[in-house]
Specification:
The protein is of the alpha/beta class. It is 32% helix and 22% strand. The longest helix has 18 residues, at 65-82. The structure holds 5'-O-[(S)-[(2-aminobenzoyl)oxy](hydroxy)phosphoryl]adenosine.
């Protein structure tokens, strides 16, 4: 029985027949029918007498578990008693990563609401879209993002009320939270399959998709990936760069630490320089960030003491072997690569340190099954290249979206990635299925060429795509950011081409190389290959015209 009074999210789930086949085989994934995940993540620790343990650390303030629990209760009371939130209502959250953002997330869920968090950098139109799609009436927002929020409001008639934190104004969230009697809050008695989160995909093409997650999904990611691969404990101090609106950040910076009673360090600015400084200052032990950030940090390690680190997690893009090896040589730490997706909530393939094969993503996380399938969904033999299919305790449920039938086929989640599984069951990333380059009849995976280029000391960053070509259909084109001290001349191009030919099958070498100072990336740190393809197509058509 749902606790939701407002059944909008439930009513807009895909039809059951289009759900993935959920699997809860492990004993730790059997959840009771009634459960509010915030009780399990947060209140549990105060109930066990661990309220004084450090929980949230930031440059401005630090909160123990008991202090965070009280803050969450105060916000939950503001939501329900001052603002009229009913179970099932969606609440928009906007802000850089901060203790308030974390507390707001947990408060909405504890009160039986549904979080819809948005990337801090979004513009009015992009903020208005989820407001309309998820029919959101209420927003909590960092006052520094007020300008764009107010513009969005003009475009989003559904939104009735915005409460800001941090402004110091008389109607600020903090003022409302100070209401006497607001320090305690009885959690909403939700069902474990009540919706608590709608995470929108960053959507490189088409409208963003709202992915629906339940209370049980939140715990399932902790009890699968967190417990079996990450294996953190209460003495850990987590840190990282992804925004909390991205489920990579939500898991790594909130869910995994809270599930084990650890501390989490939340920082607003998380460029590679900021991240290195914060790891050192706060003595972080576990870091979550993207492959590019590891490469950027490698160049800046000197002068920083990051000896507190014991685990490093990489996701969002493939971790090239060269980056893995360089980080291992510099820090002694084996980066844990893992593939996750907003649809799956978090990481579903990735291996613990002892089982890593450098260059491979890893093996399916306990609780998940993965296979490589052909266009018809038939499982392929080991060492064949095909589409990745996965199922487990979490999976794709789009909010009112026809694209559900593309992502879920025959009960399996089809992530849109091309993979190879070797005879030992390790999964090797090839490319996004729509990113494969076809040149003179050969299928070439851009990321493989990128990984080869990155092994050359002159290359700092690179992106490889297909450029239109009369003769071959497409040719392999590389966009390269050089390291300091190298120049992008014909000699370097020759050197890099020879290097690729010597590293992987020669026909995969980049026939053209263009030198750039930076690569286009999404707010979640992913290389925008479609943007590179557009650039490559532009250059090609100019050539034809001239
Ligand atoms: C790609 C990877 C190779 C892959 C995410 C961890 O990235 C996350 O979610 P998104 O919805 O994108 C999903 C897609 O990103 N990808 C992610 N990780 C890897 N490709 N190797 C990897 N290690 O194409 C996937 O389909 O933005 C990652 C946790 C939560 C997440 N939401």
């Amino acid at each position: 029985m749902t606790a939701h009074v407002d059944t909008f999210a439930r009513d807009n789930l895909p039809p059951r027949a289009q759900w993935p086949d959920f699997r809860f085989e492990l004993p730790e994934l059997q959840y009771p029918d009634r459960m509010n995940c915030v009780v399990e993540l947060l209140d549990r620790w105060t109930a066990q007498g661990r309220g004084a343990a450090p929980c949230l650390i930031s440059p401005n303030e630090s909160l123990s578990y008991a202090q965070l629990a009280e803050r969450v209760n105060r916000i939950a009371n503001v939501l329900t008693r001052t603002l009229g939130l009913e179970p099932g209502h969606r609440v928009l959250l906007r802000g850089p990563n901060s203790p308030m953002m974390v507390a707001a997330y947990l408060a909405v869920i504890k009160a039986g609401g549904i979080v819809v968090a948005t990337m801090p950098l979004l513009r009015a139109k992009e903020i208005a879209y989820p407001i309309g799609k998820a029919q959101i009436h209420l927003a909590l927002c960092d006052h520094r993002l007020a300008e764009e929020m107010e513009k969005a409001r003009a475009l989003a008639p559904d939104l009735q009320r915005v409460v800001y934190w941090g402004s110091g104004a008389a109607d600020a969230l903090e003022t409302l939270m100070a209401t006497p009697g607001y320090e305690g809050f009885a959690p909403c008695d939700t069902a474990s399959d009540d919706v608590c989160l709608i995470a929108f995909t960053s959507g490189t093409t088409g409208e963003p998709k709202g992915t629906i997650h339940f209370h049980r999904d939140i715990l399932a990611t902790c009890d699968s990936y967190g417990r079996h691969v990450l294996r953190a404990d209460a003495t850990d101090r987590f840190i990282g760069s992804p925004p909390l609106a991205f489920t990579f950040g939500l898991g790594g910076l909130v869910l995994f630490p809270l599930r084990v009673g650890a501390a989490t360090i939340v920082i607003e600015k998380s460029s590679p320089d900021d991240l290195l400084a914060a790891i050192e200052k706060f003595r972080a032990t576990i870091v979550f960030t993207a492959p590019t950030a590891y490469r950027a940090m490698l160049a800046k390690l000197r002068g920083h003491d990051i000896s507190s680190l014991r685990k490093c997690v990489s996701a969002g893009e493939a971790l090239p072997k060269a980056t893995f090896e360089a980080w291992l040589a510099a820090t002694g730490i084996k980066i844990l690569d893992g593939i996750g997706a907003t649809e799956m909530l978090h990481i579903f393939i990735g291996s613990p340190e002892q089982e890593i094969r450098p260059g491979a993503t890893g093996k399916p996380v306990p609780g998940y099954a993965a296979r490589v399938v052909d266009a018809n969904g038939n499982e392929l033999a080991p060492n064949s290249i095909g589409r990745l299919a996965v199922r487990g305790p979490t999976g794709c449920r789009y909010l009112a979206d026809k694209r559900q039938r593309q992502y879920v086929q025959n009960g399996w989640n089809i992530t849109g990635d091309t993979y190879l599984m070797d005879a030992d069951g390790y999964f090797w990333y090839q490319a996004r299925s729509d990113d494969m380059i076809v040149s003179a009849g050969y299928n070439i995976a851009g990321p493989e060429v990128e990984a080869a280029l990155l092994e050359h000391p002159a290359v700092a960053e690179c992106g490889v795509v297909g450029a239109p070509d009369e003769e071959r259909g497409q040719i392999v084109k590389a966009y390269v950011v050089l390291r300091a001290g190298h120049s992008g001349d014909a000699a370097t191009t020759k050197l890099l081409q020879e290097h690729v030919k010597a590293t992987i099958a020669p026909y995969k070498y980049p026939r053209t190389i263009e030198y750039v100072t930076e690569l286009p990336r999404t707010q979640t740190g992913k290389l925008q290959r479609f943007e590179l393809r557009r650039m490559a197509a532009d250059t090609a058509s100019h050539k034809l015209a001239s």
